[in-house]
Design brief:
homodimer; alpha/beta; eleven-stranded mixed sheet
Amino acid sequence: MKTSSVTVAVDAMGGDHGVCVTVPASIDSARANPRLHLILVGDKSSIENELNKCRDFSAVKDRIQIKHTTEVVAMDEKPSVAMRNKKDSSMRISINLVKEKLADASVSAGNTGALMAVSRFVLKTPPGIDRPAIVFNIPSVTGHCHLLDLGANIDCSAEQLYQFALMGSILSQAVDGISAPRVGLLNIGTEETKGNEVIKEAADLLRADPRINYIGFIEADGIFRGEADVVACDGFSGNVTLKACEGTARMFSQFVKDGINRNWLTKLSGLTFLPVLLGLKKKMDPGEYNGGTMIGLRGVVIKSHGSADRASFATAIRLAALEVEKNIPHLIEDWFSDKTESKASEG
Amino acid sequence: MKTSSVTVAVDAMGGDHGVCVTVPASIDSARANPRLHLILVGDKSSIENELNKCRDFSAVKDRIQIKHTTEVVAMDEKPSVAMRNKKDSSMRISINLVKEKLADASVSAGNTGALMAVSRFVLKTPPGIDRPAIVFNIPSVTGHCHLLDLGANIDCSAEQLYQFALMGSILSQAVDGISAPRVGLLNIGTEETKGNEVIKEAADLLRADPRINYIGFIEADGIFRGEADVVACDGFSGNVTLKACEGTARMFSQFVKDGINRNWLTKLSGLTFLPVLLGLKKKMDPGEYNGGTMIGLRGVVIKSHGSADRASFATAIRLAALEVEKNIPHLIEDWFSDKTESKASEG
């Protein structure tokens, strides 16, 4: 674990709220972690304007830099267009800083597709990894589960699912401190006969790797019951799982509001119960967790929720620093180079 | 709409609880609906034993028959084995009664795979329908959404997705009384460029059919926001959506319990708030809704949740009677024969 300073490049213009959220969240993060240095990437005057509004700025001033850029990737911009035409965007320059070793990690609340495309193009994947994935912490009754992929790869091969599982296992080991994380494959039943050929083949690959504590197929509800520490799936199913969880959690929140507003008695009891309910909402909504890791890149890139508020964006920055300190990209590179070497020596 | 009597064949032995749940639920259903006749299919002495325990039995005695069978399909039995070896099972005989027009519908809480295989083999699909699907009501902030398929068909063609959407639209029209139900396709984004080729082709088919009010792609969270009345997807994504919703709802229920038990103040407020919370749980957990329609068959077959309690199983029986009264299988057959005819005349 690195104990020296950590530098995070923040895409200050990304997300629904831009500098209004990213700048105060950066200040909060710097105050909370004295080893943290930040490079705020974006329009200099907008950033300075926000910095001057933050009364805590002076306390962390020497650990905050600004990197001026002229362009912004729009939230609905096509990834290919963002790649070709926005070479001076705050998103692109943030990733470039990681590539140039001027930053250890980058955080952006911008367009997910563009961030994945730019990160992959600039940082590249280490040998043995076909494609990066997006991994998210999903809440469960016993803690959380690392679910991947979450939308970067719609149709996946068995080998890709296996790679996702391996990367998730490394992440869970390092971040959660679990020596043998329980790794499952998302399926529509737990019996070995369930699912299509791709999933069955991925299961064979996982069973054959002694470094993985493969526990078998897991259904989506098993994630929330805390049956696994890591669950691998294709990006379509992963996205559906995350969105169904978010949708259910928000529906719950709406129903609770309606329930509270029913009459004076429910209003009164709701008032007493409110702190519990608010804590609950935060516990359940993965959007509130905030911070999807773009895993399988030569560098740490964290995707914050587009609608993240100040506290949520600070969570994403904290996650970035943690993954740098835990050396995630190097751990992954090592595991996969072991595998590449052993394959080469077998051949 | 049929207003005469409705006869439902109940697989009395199916589900986790068998006759202890199915028999009292049948009595409740018969009491609630004076047009309802029931054939309880299963072991005669077990059924009689349960009937005699129900004090309301005498009031509905003349509308309850027993059909004795000697076999039971186990919950974990392979569908192919159930098909081949259990020809006198309560499940099989219930479906046979529908085929023989001795019942209008069948309800079972048994093994889903076996029920689908048996129903498809005995009842068949009408012309123009490749495969039956399982459709479920998913709760939303504005009411509910008919989601299909829920696990019967893992890999689907564009034509199958189109057929699911059409069947869902007919069901929603008849059951919800909506003249032009909003029909969406589950995807990982709402833009037309999202998803794989199968989904894009299904979207083209839906756009080309003037009988469907196709509203485009919908993300899983949109289902819970009430953005569509019908959402079609492959059985893998559908199962994941349902299980993620159930898992989140149950996790919520657990967190609420934990929150209430925190201290005396939360216990007190929880007590006042309990009726709201219990209503909420029922509103949110699709397992509580109970009753998945096996759609696209020449007959009404309802799959109840295996763990259904008395009230939930009665809900499934009510759904069966409603679908008979609304003539769902005939409506579907008519729509698809229109399509088959117009294709033939085009050709």
